[in-house]
Write a structure and sequence with these properties.
Elements: H1 2-29, E1 38-43, E2 58-62, E3 65-69, E4 89-90, E5 93-97, E6 114-119, E7 139-141, E8 147-156, E9 163-166, H2 168-171, E10 179-181, E11 188-190, E12 196-202, E13 207-212, E14 230-239, E15 248-249
């Protein structure tokens, strides 16, 4: 029995050390500076006659997609749509580790896959006789009875490389990270690189979407770059001055 106990000791020590290292990695990923809210502005210096439609725009969330939108130079907020519709919801989020339990074959210890989350657009549901006031699908009640914004993960489709937003259940079957920032903590990276492009899906200045250009070839290998205008761009963090209410994961 004594020999068996000694033989098992290194395994126990190794397991404890792995748990300790995992906690350190988790703490680093959840550091306060990574959970500071920010908006995303676009920097683009591509040599194109349409660069002005991309450079200086703001990242917004619209119809499940991550898109670019002109912003008011004074307020730095998205402007109303071309047909007078309300301005879309600006990306307003931060870094948040994606649950390791939902990522297959993760070794231990391993750095958490750093995800990117944002508050989502307000979408009121139709009122019912038992609920005269519109409810929202993107908020959740708190213990105080108030509502706090719900968060969605930003992810990219493995087949199209287009950026989307959605709840964890929808995001986990796609590429959810690792997201991070550049050395100056200004630009966003995915898989360690700033390989993002703006793709013109519709003409008129309001039809640009954000894609992940993993091969850094303006999506030519994907076929998109041969059919549509694609401009390289950077997603630049603009820290939100004040937190407004609590945020809850979706």
């Amino acid at each position: 029995m004594y020999a068996l106990t000694l033989a098992g000791t290194p395994i126990s020590i190794g397991a404890n050390e792995a748990v300790h290292q995992q906690r350190l990695l988790d703490a680093e990923a959840e550091a306060d500076e990574r959970q500071q809210e920010f908006h995303l502005d676009i920097f683009c210096d591509a040599k194109s006659k349409k660069t002005d439609q991309v450079h200086g725009t703001i990242v917004v969330l619209k119809n499940g997609q991550v898109r670019l939108w002109p912003q008011d130079p004074k307020t730095k907020c998205p402007i109303p749509g071309p047909d007078g519709e309300d301005a879309p919801h600006p990306f307003t989020g931060f870094y948040l580790p994606f649950p390791s339990s939902e990522i297959a074959h993760r070794p231990m210890p391993a750095a958490p896959v750093l995800g990117l989350v944002s508050t989502v657009p307000y979408i009121p549901s139709s009122p019912t006789p038992s609920s005269p006031s519109p409810s929202t699908s993107d908020t959740e009640p708190t213990q105080t009875g108030t509502r706090k914004p719900k968060l969605n993960y930003i992810f990219t489709s493995p087949t199209t490389r287009k950026l989307h937003y959605g709840p964890r259940s929808a995001a986990k079957s796609n590429k959810v990270g690792p997201w991070d920032w550049t050395d100056d903590e200004q630009g966003l990276t995915l898989d360690g690189a700033e390989c993002f492009v703006a793709v013109e899906e519709e003409r008129g200045g309001f039809g640009w979407a954000v894609y992940w250009d993993r091969e850094d070839d303006c999506l030519k290998e994907m076929g998109i770059g041969r059919e549509r205008r694609v401009l390289r761009c950077s997603l630049e963090r603009r820290v939100v001055d004040e937190r407004v209410g609590g945020l809850g994961e979706g």
